[in-house]
Amino acid sequence: MATTTPVLDARSLNRATLARQLLLERAPLRAEDAVARLLGLQAQNVKPPYYALAARLADFDPEELSALMASRAVVRIVTLRSTIHTHTADDALTLRPLVQPARERELNMFRKGLTGVDLAQLAAQARESVEQEPRTLKQLREELAVTWPDADPQALGLAARNTLALVQVTPRGLWRRSGQVALTTVEHWLGRPTEPEPTPDATVLRYLAAFGPASVKDMQTWAGVTRLRPVFERLRPRLAVFRDEDGVELFDLPDAPRPEPDTPAPVRLLPEYDNLLLSHADRRRVVPPAYKGRTWVGNRSYSVFLTDGFLAGAWRLEEPKGAPAVLTMEPFGTLTKAQRAELTQEAERLLGGPMGAGAVSAA
User: Fold this and answer.
1) 3-state SS of the chain?
2) Which candidate, 232, 238, 233, 243, places its Cα nearest to that of 255?
3) Which of 110, 129, 161, 326 has the fewest beta carbons under 10 Å from its own?
4) What distances in angstroms separate CA 51 from CA 57, 203, 211, 355, 360, one per listed residue?
5) Helices 216-223 & 89-106 angle (0-180, nearest 10)
6) Reported confidence tier of residue 359, pLDDT bands at 50, 70, 90
7) Exposed, middle or buried by CB within 10 Å (0-12, 13-18, 19+), for 69?
C-alpha cells in the first residue's frame, strides 16, 4: 500500500527552524555549546556573533564569548560559503577540511592573476610567514609579490586565503575591543593539527539538527559545496522525509522538534548575515516573498527583526561617542500595536543588558 509523504507548509517549516535555532525561546546554554550546536555563527563583521547569541541565549553576557575567543576556544575563520564564521576550535579544525575543495575551486576565478605561480610553493611560503608572526593580508601580499612580481597581488592574497586555513587572531573579534585583521594558520593558533575531514554523513545530520527540515539543495547552499545527494540517499533509512508545498523533498531527524504551526514565536532582533536567513536555498520559511531582497543593498546586509517568526523589518544601532546608544527600527509593513510593544520591549532588553545602554526609536 502506497504511503503519502507528509507536506509541511511555510509556517510549519518556520516553527521547526526557529526551534532548532533557539529562537522560539531563549536557551540556558553556555556560549560555546550554542556555537557548536548552531554549527557556527556568521562573522563577516565583529559584532554579529554577539547579537546572534543575545537573541538566542538566556542571560547572555558578551564577555563570555569574548573570553572564549581570547582563550582560543572559538575562532574566526573562513569556512562555509567562503565567508568568515565564528566556530568552536574543534569545528574549525574539521569543517574547514570539509569545505576545502570548494575553497580551492574558487581559485579558478583568479587563474589569470596567478600565471606562473606554484600554489604548493605559495602555500608553504605563506604558512612560514604567518606562523612566524601574524600578518595582515596586505603584508602577506607584499611578501608573496617578492617571489612572484608579475602576479596580481590581490590574486596572491586570495590564493593564500584559499589554500591555507587562516584564522583572524585576537584582539580582532573581542567585545568592545579594536584590532586590525591579522592572520595565522588555525593549526598554529590552536597548537594542534587539523582533524581528518569529517564524514559528510555526520555533517548532514548536524545540519539537519540545526536547520531542518531541509532539502539537499538547502544544505548545499548552507555549506557552499555540491554533490551531497548521494550522502542524503545513504542516510535516507535513518531520516524522516517530507515535502514542501512545491513538492520539494525535505529530510529531517526523526526525533527533531517540529512544533505546531500556530506555536507562538516571539519578536527577535537578529544581526546582519544571520545564518537563519542564509542557510536554505528556499528562504520563504523565514522571508515572506514580498520582502525578498529587502535585507540587502549591494554587498551590505541589514540587521533584521522577526515578528511571528518571519522577517518583518530592519534595525540599526548607533553608538555615538559620549552619548547614549540609539536603536532604530524600520518595519517593512504595518505592525500591530501588540507587535510594536513587544518589539520595543525586546530592543530595551538588548540595550538595557550587558550588550549596551541607550534608547529605542521607531521609524
Assistant:
1) CCCCCCEECHHHHHHHHHHHCCCCCCECCCHHHHHHHCCCEECCCCCHHHHHHHCCECCCCHHHHHHHHHCCCEEEEECHHHCEEEEEHHHHHHHHHHHHHHHHHHHHHHHHHHCCCCHHHHHHHHHHHHHHCCECHHHHHHHHHHHCCCCCHHHHHHHHHHHCCEEECCCCCCCCCCCCCCEEEHHHHHCCCCCCCCCHHHHHHHHHHHHCCECHHHHHHHHCCCCCHHHHHHHHHHCEEEEECCCCEEEECCCCCCCCCCCCCCCEEECCCCHHHCCCCCHHHCCCHHHCCCCEECCEECEEEEECCEEEEEEEEECCCCCCEEEEEEECCCCCHHHHHHHHHHHHHHHHCCCCCEEEEEC
2) 238
3) 326
4) 10, 25, 19, 8, 16
5) 90
6) very low
7) buried
Grid cell 592574497 — which residue?
A: 157
C-alpha cell at 84: 568568515
Lowest mean pLDDT among 47-51, 114-118, 313-317, 318-322: 318-322
Note the pLDDT tens digit of each residue in 171-201. 999 999 988 999 999 999 999 987 776 678 9
Q: Which residue has the cell 547614549?
A: 324
What is the reported pLDDT for 358?
47
| Rounded CA Rg of the chain | 21
The residue length of the chain stands at 363
> Would you say 328 and 363 are in contact if contact means Cβ atoms under 8 Å apart?
yes
CA-closest candidate to residue 33, choices 77, 81, 79, 74:
74
pTM across the whole model: 0.93
C-alpha cell at 111: 587563474
Please give the order of strands across the beta sheet that includes 240-244: 7-8, 240-244, 249-252
* Joined grid coordinates for residue 62: 558578551
Task: Check: CB of residue 136 under 8 Å from CB of residue 98.
Answer: no
* Cα angle 325, 330, 333; round to 5: 160
For residue 356, the model assigns a pLDDT of 67
Pairwise CA distance, residues 137 & 160, whole Å:
9
* Of 2, 13, 59, residue with least CA distance to 244: 13
- pLDDT confidence tier of residue 77, bands split at 50, 70 and 90: very high
